[in-house]
Amino acid sequence: MPLARLRKLYSAARHVPPRALALRLRREARQRWLCRRGHAIRLDTPLPDGARIAARMLKPDMAAFGAKTRALVASMFAYDRTKDALIFVLSGDVASLADMEAVPWTRTEAIAASDVNRCFFMSFVEQASLLEGPAHEDLVRLDTYVSVLGRVAPLGGRRLPIPWQPLPVARRLVNLVAGLALIVGRDPSLASRPEALRLLGHVALLRGLLRQIREDDLGYNHFATELFAQCVADSVFGDAGALKHHAREFVAAMETQVGPDGLQLERSATYQCHLLGHLDALIAGRLLPDAEHAAIVDLAARMRAALRLMTHPDGGIAVFNDAAVGDGPSPLALGTSGTGIADGVLLLADAGYARLQHGDFSAIFDAGPCGPDDNPGHAHADFLSFELDVAGTRLFVDPGVASYKGGRERDACRSAASHNGPTFAGLEPIEFLGAFRVGKRGRGRFLTGGDATALAGIVSGVGGTQDGFAEASGHVARWLGLAPSGTLILADAWQGLPERAATSTFLVDARHWRVSGEEEGHIVLTSAEGREVALSALVGKLTVESGASFHLFGPKIAFPAVRITLGPATGGNERAAVLEIRANGQPSAAGLDLADRLARTLQATFAR
What we know:
The protein has 3 domains: 43-213, no CATH class; 217-336, no CATH class; 344-607, Beta-galactosidase, Chain A, domain 5, CATH 2.70.98.70. The two termini are 41 Å apart. The chain has helices spanning 3-13, 18-37, 50-56, 60-74, 97-102, 116-124, 135-152, 166-186, 194-213, 220-236, 240-257, 269-285, 290-309, 408-414, 449-456, 592-604; strands spanning 77-80, 85-88, 94-96, 344-348, 353-358, 361-366, 386-390, 393-397, 423-424, 430-433, 437-441, 444-446, 460-466, 475-482, 488-495, 502-509, 513-519, 522-527, 532-539, 541-549, 559-567, 574-583. Helices cover 37% and strands 22% of the residues. The strands form 4 sheets. Strands 4, 5, 6, 7, 8, 9, 16, 20 and 21 form a 9-stranded antiparallel sheet that branches. An 8-stranded antiparallel sheet has the order 12-13-14-15-22-19-18-17. By secondary structure, it is of the alpha+beta class.
């Protein structure tokens, strides 16, 4: 192995606790054993005492759990009964039984990078709780789908196919339990039908697999989801001892990965939504023992408050790190929204996010680390980036997630060059290794103390800096604030590396906005409703070109975008750019004197 590769692997592994490395080795050994023995495991064996367990599905707590699960799933997906197909609501993508049969499940490398995410959702059997036709017909459909999945994606081979990896195993277990509870709730006589008993047998198999391959080593959202599934399975099978144990583990795992400000430490609003959905489903069914139930009620309240600040007025989440609008329960389904937030700057200080709200402007700004040091697998180099919503329509968007499969597409969508934070051409503040490993990584932080006071004295707002270019002797900082008239002011500063271009590149959602005017240093954007937003480079220059974003449901669907690049007007070791953003015909309120003072004050932060 080349020395450069070894160095990168060491830089990734040195952040991982030895216990996690040992647990990873144990899990991989168990997965290899399953691959060798998988052909001998029956996937359709009914439970001997299935009728007794099926009767458990008729209890009110399981009905409430099923109903809450359906509400959460319905905010992401719809089910087309005529085509027997799952519809991805926001992207319009479709996953039918025929689509599932066409996937090369046993050759993961043959699955297109853009289709990996859809394959995961197919293996989750998300439609289980959405079936609302004749109860017996729905039961048969669900049984058929699971049987076909087992046939086209057999357990075994060189590596576990996607449907038999830990996360799909957990998600499928939860969805099947919810779907069965709803079906037998409509017709209790179906609880003893062969199809119901086979499905319960499959749930039992999934439960057994989780005991062997649960991702204790990864922690975070995967670990919590798998513990959630174990709690659900323990409730179904009436195993009070196992439920008590797994409930304690689940609460501990959640409390460990949710910061004091209520945001999950992977810093992705998508995983915030998924994990909050787990809490809400458990709370609705009151499935956990009393002490753990009380703990998750409190935790859900904190997470919901944090999610509100990460939700735009258009109802969708901010798309930092591995995240996508629609790739998780919607904030509305989770009982919150991004509207009605008071003007001002609100911080999720522990996570490193800020929300700047004023009039029609709603900006969400990232000034935190890329993720948890021991597992930043979902990190993007979006340091100092911000997303902007104007009067309920998203203007500046994140590039999103082009792929979860390692390769050019994933590297590009995670790069600093694809995000709108200030950067240097050809340099990256994070060293990405494959799909989910990170070697060297920078860290963002808020500007505080005297720096923040001096900047706020010119333009009230929030700012940050990040050290990902420091090894190459480069430094960047950003300030985002409001002029007295309410126009939005952005200032970027770069220090060092005069031989490299200094840029900040913004993606504008071209489905909702078009460039209606352009002259040197000025761009006018017009929405489909006729609303205008003017961008003026008070210091620096602007250029426009075409681009793309995957911010809606991530991989598979690329949406058109306009790329607007802001850069300094001159070269040198100290460079800056200042952009004014005006909406609704606001007059320019930030003169060149204010812009120059802001730029000089931001550059002065590098000296401290």
